[in-house]
Amino acid sequence: MKFVVLILLASIGCVNGEMNFYFYFHCLVLYPGQQKMMKIFGKVLDVDLDEVTIGLEPVSNFKCVDDCFQTDGCILVFMNSGGKCFSFDFNSTKKLTVVETKREEGLMVAFKTRFLLDQCPAYDDMDLLVTVGEDPIPWIKNGNMYTFEKCVRDWKMYTRENGVTVCMQTFKEEIYSLVNAIKRCDELGGYKLTGVQSKEELQWIFDRRTSTWHKNSGFWINAKRLEEYSRMNDTHFNITDGYTTLDQEFYRKFADLSGSNIGIIEDCLLVCNAAPGFLINDIQCSDYTYAKGFVCGYQLV
Ligand SMILES: *[C@@H]1O[C@H](CO)[C@@H](O)[C@H](O)[C@H]1NC(C)=O
Ligand SMILES: *[C@@H]1O[C@H](CO)[C@@H](O)[C@H](O)[C@H]1NC(C)=O
Ligand SMILES: *[C@@H]1O[C@H](CO)[C@@H](O)[C@H](O)[C@H]1NC(C)=O
Fold first, then answer.
1. Does ligand 2 lie within 6 Å of residue 240's CB atom?
2. Is CATH 3.60.20.40 the right assignment for the domain spanning 156-299?
3. What InterPro entries would the database entry show (predicted)?
């Protein structure tokens, strides 16, 4: 099937009190109100624009913004009056701070964001979201400053009920013991083998399994039954990532626990398709050849 998509180019200038800003958007007629660029007078504090653009040719303001708009991974561009333009890529950005500046300074920042309105909203009411990755991430506005914080690369971010924000990523490698899974996460960048705290996190990990894997195959997570409860059908787990707190009900609910199987002690946990209704199985802590990966994490602070 073939269909025609019209692309409109437009910009809306907005003046709300002191602040001048405007939207610039390509509007796919089939999906109105999608991705846009919002420009403000401002600068990114995390970079020295002159330094990072050494050797780059000046470009027009339009091209600076448009190139970012057209590039999938671009989340934001920063430009000065000399036409020096620097773009920030989603995967290589972890944290940014943008501060508003006076028009006379000639500095511009354009955010890629998604806005329902095609008209000028009140500036103070705008909730800017980075909509480049899998999940929207908010810019936190504080006075005349915006900050944005995300996980490394395309790692998944979860904010837990206790307010702890965790970043996690699955890795597919045949690692047959808990000890080596912990070691691999450390080797990959000082990360922890992550503990799991919510159904949402667990489901995400479960869904990262390869569809052709055996039902018993899955990812190591951080948990080992305490010595005194070893080989028992029990939920007293030791979680050593430093940010996950033990919620025993959680394991009772989602893990198919036994403690042992035909004489083999099963004190560790694997996210897999073990039994109907369960997303975790307790397994032996070493020489477990169904283990096909592990989940690393760290606390975002
Ligand atoms: C970020 O990196 C991941 C994995 O390397 C890749 O699949 C994804 O397309 C990248 N995302 C963007 C927005 O560049
Ligand atoms: C949990 O495991 C760590 C690392 O193996 C160990 O140092 C710690 O003593 C254990 N905690 C308990 C309560 O057994
Ligand atoms: C483990 O304990 C739970 C809760 O008491 C029970 O439902 C389950 O059948 C037990 N599993 C085994 C293998 O005994």
1. yes
2. no
3. C-type_lectin-like (IPR001304), C-type_lectin-like/link_sf (IPR016186), CTDL_fold (IPR016187), PAN-3_domain (IPR006583)
Domain ranges for the chain: 5-149, 156-299
Q: What is the pLDDT of residue 274?
A: 83
pLDDT in tens, 203-249: 999 999 999 999 999 999 999 999 999 999 999 999 999 999 999 99
Cβ of 90 closer than 6 Å to ligand 1, yes or no, is yes
Give the closest residue (by CA) to ligand 3 atom 5: 233
d(CA 147, CA 153): 17
3-class SS of residue 24: strand
**Residue 226, ligand 2, Cβ within 6 A:** yes
Kindly report the protein residue whose alpha carbon is nearest to atom 11 of ligand 3: 258
Least confident of 55-64, 180-189, 260-269: 55-64
Number of neighbours of residue 146 by Cβ within 10 angstroms: 22
For tokens 């073939």, what's the residue?
A: 2
- Please report the atom of ligand 2 found closest to the CA of residue 227: 14
Q: pTM of this prediction?
A: 0.81
The position carrying tokens 């989602």 is 254
Query: Which tokens is 208 given?
Result: 């990262």
